[in-house]
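Sample entry (415 residues):
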Amino acid sequence: MLINLKLLSRIDTIKLLKLLPLLVYFISFPPFITKYCFPGIPFVLIGFAMFVVMMVMLLTNLKRDSKVNKIVLFSFALLILFYFFQLFFHSDSAYLIRLRMAFMMVFLYVYIVIVVGIDSFVKVYVYSLVAILIMATIAYPLITLNILKPFFEYVNFDERPGYFFGLTCTNTYVQLPAFSFVRVSGLFDEPGALAYWGVYALILNKSCLKNSFIEKVIIVSLALTFSMAFYVTLIFYYILFYARVNVRNIFIVILLSFILIVIYCLKETDYAFLYDATLGRLEVADDGSLKGDSRSKLFIVAYQYFLTSPILGIGQSTFDNISNNGNFMHANLFAILAANGIVGFIILPFLFFKLVIDGIIKIFTSDLIKYVILIFLGLLQRPEVEYVFSVVMLAVLYEVLKRGVIKLKDVRIYE
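Predicted structure, serialized as tokens:
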């Protein structure tokens, strides 16, 4: 499974040419932060050029017998109709941007299905995430030992400072005389984002590739994000797929217990920031919330605005204006409800709800519900159901999980 130099002589040039514009387009826009890592490069212009290239490729590959998933197309149609309705109901021009994004979602999904192929895209996505994770893992000890310093600093989407180390990025970097503490984030704006999209790779690998080496790389590397959401997801992942009493599992429990004890012992030392970044986030603050809980206050604010207009929400522009003026409401499930109401909450993550229903129906005959639980844990922290890359990836996940186990070992991007 490891990509090596021998593959260079067997590359399927045509398939790679179909994949290349798609990959370049994706990394040119959020959630990737390549524009900060490589300032001066016109990624918006490059992304538009890749769109034109993909349009030509799609038109030349489009055939009468071309098939796409009807449920996925139905979900996109619902989304487009809903945005049109919201555009006039709220007299909100922000939905024109949402409509453009929705049409781009449809285009990219159809391009993946017809031109690239779902199977090839899944394999490339997993390999790409693994490559990002391997680079971050290599960088981690170098940064920790103060061997690797930031090439430069930049300002992130959320206006927090970020640091580019060449092999990885981060927005959490504490430099000390003896060593440094860092939470790797790869090519994403923050460690939690790398963990979120890494879990997608973990799910796709588990359901399709079934490569134990890749699974281990993903888990070990994502641990370096120090994301509590990932740790919780990992516990569920382990319980759902590996919970059984044996020597290996007992050893893992003992090892993790030892690590947690060591971290706890750092609480009152000069290295307390290691405790604060891990176990300390589970402590109860003076206001009764968890110290590592960055969502509860967002929930409360968004919930209050949701109550003012529960059916169709307060509208995207109103939501953004409130969020940008001191009452930040993004990154929680009630954000969808506040902006677009109950109707939007059903339509935007429609494919996820369809997976939930199918998972419950097939609970005794399929592993689908296990994957649904993992996806849900991610959506609790990051309800990514509005942005182009997020929705396209959800559509890919839906199609892959609905098809069941795909023998991707027989699907090659090289010949």
